[in-house]
Amino acid sequence: MYYNINMKKLSLRQIVGITIWWTEGTKAYKDNRWPALVYPVDVTNTNADVIKSFLEFLRKDIGINETRLKLQLQIHYGDNQKEIEKYWSEVTKIPLERFTKTIIRPKGNKVGKSRGTCKIRYSDKATYLKLDNLWKNVLTLLDKNGRAAGNRT
User: Distance (Å, rounded) from C-alpha 41 to C-alpha 110?
Assistant: First the structure.
């Protein structure tokens, strides 16, 4: 099924992908180390299906440069780091060489039961602005259908 948005047809995968980015993604921000805004195309989640859906959207619909795609994990002290890293590498098809340093938090309540928190990391201003524009088009369509539309800040 396709949806017409500003003369462009969007698939359900594209609408789901852009919604995941909007709800679970990092927004543009000012980093005091740099003079300009940072435009991350990052999504963080513990659910493998959410992560896979977002990656499929980036790879098939947005056309990212795969070599710039990175992954960062947060796990708890006592979790099996190598096993969790291998799991997310298989889920995401991102090689371990492109993982950034895994963050290890103090011991949690579910040691050994969690697969950690996965953060997909991709930094590219043009891609960020493309996603932001796509989301604004979705909001415009919703607004035209009588639903409230908001602004991204």
Answer: 29
